[in-house]
Request: fold
Amino acid sequence: MAMQPRLLSIFDILGPIMTGPSSSDTAGATRIGLMGRQFLGSEPESVTIHFYSSLAATYKGHMTDSGVVAGLMGFGVDAPEISDALSIAASRGISVAVDADVASDRDPSTIGMDLKSKDRSAGVSGLTVGGGEILVTAFDGFSVELHGNENGFFAVFRPGATNPEKIADVTGYPAETLSLVQGGSSAMVLGTGDEPLSRERLERLRLLPGIERANSLHSLLDYALRDATPAFSTFGEMVDYARASGLTLPEAVESYECRRSGVDGAFVRRKLRAAWMVMLDSAERGLKGRNRLVGGLLPGDDGAKLLRAFHERRTLSGDVLPLAVARALAVMEVNGCMGRIVAAPTAGACGVVPGVLITAAEKLRSTPEEIDDALLVAAITGLLIANVAPISGAIGGCQSEIGVASAMAAAALAQMGGGTPVQVTHAVALALKGVLGMTCDQAAGPVEVPCVKRNAIGAANAFSSADMALAGIESVIPPDEVVLALRNIQTLMPVELRDTTIGGLGSTPTAARLKAELLERYRTRT
Reply:
């Protein structure tokens, strides 16, 4: 079957709900592990994980090896077991080895796995592409294109012994809807549909002559792509769609998601409120100041310190901003200690939206419905940006993460403040313009320095941008053109400034010392 285009859901942006610290390198890695488990057909007995380039140097700080192994054991992206996955694997008798090729020129987002069980083996490769999104690119030498949101099946067979027509007959999939992937002496058929292939049909498929391997594919998501034609694709189209349909902006976003995913408004609101509850919980937990971060580069109580200063009247920036910043810091500290957070749009920027929205909702005494509306507007903002510009720091710098999160928060604030759809979009443009060019220059590798405190900057930027937009101040450069500018800068940004730890703050003497200390701790730990 020809692969469906990957039309984003708002829950690809406001999510996943996950265990930190990195949406790409922890949640994405876990999803790649889950896909490896499906291709192998069981839990492996031995695993060799391959990391390349910058990820080969930073994977320990992102708990990427733990994420892969957790997925291979069947744990989801929000499982607390991710932090202990390596020890759990050892207790189950699973052998885990890591091949880290720092000198490789392969895409650092690539994760490879060599998997073995009692009676079979599998080689699987995939990419983490930002915000927990993945793309599985290879299985046992076959080129594939799977995002982890597919239901269906795969079958490896010997041509001549059987053919796609017989496979279609057994599985119930029309032959013209199957994808045929040629290999060496074997070929593979991929079929995707609304549901995984049933156990009965799978057993019949495995009995066909020439079938070497066949398994069902199960989506890793609880929502599916039902209609690949978007209701709108740009900020300008969104405003026009709402106006022409007589809808408010949140109603237009809900309409987009219902059409895209084939769900109803009640489903959308349930998922929004589940995300909101995790945001509230992570902020409350983080403000207790008992956060032991993976890398240990920060004390883990910066949010609590700022909250204390606010209550002691030692802050200068009013009665809203210090609270929002304290919460943004706190959520990121929870993320950094392998806590449960909502990627918004990524884990590295997960503090901005909850810090801003929780505080604004308190001040405005917002109803649950008004909070839902703000979350809808935040999510569509990230989605429309991601349509054009990747939201991964490794691809486009921190402007792609903190910048997009700040734009999402600014849009949500403008919505909460009673702004028009046009004012909401100008809040997006003003916020995104303010952080264009922000580099991803981590010190030593963990999602801590400067990531945690950049969430504070994102929160402050969101408030000032929303205030300007609500006052009637407009961006001279239209919102959709600002997004094009973001993509342009992503393309021009040197690789050293894109999550490599070798440029910017990552090149400082202190960062070099911290990196050496961390690597020594990792070696001792393993």
Remarks:
- The longest strand covers residues 121-130.
- The chain has 20 helices and twelve strands.
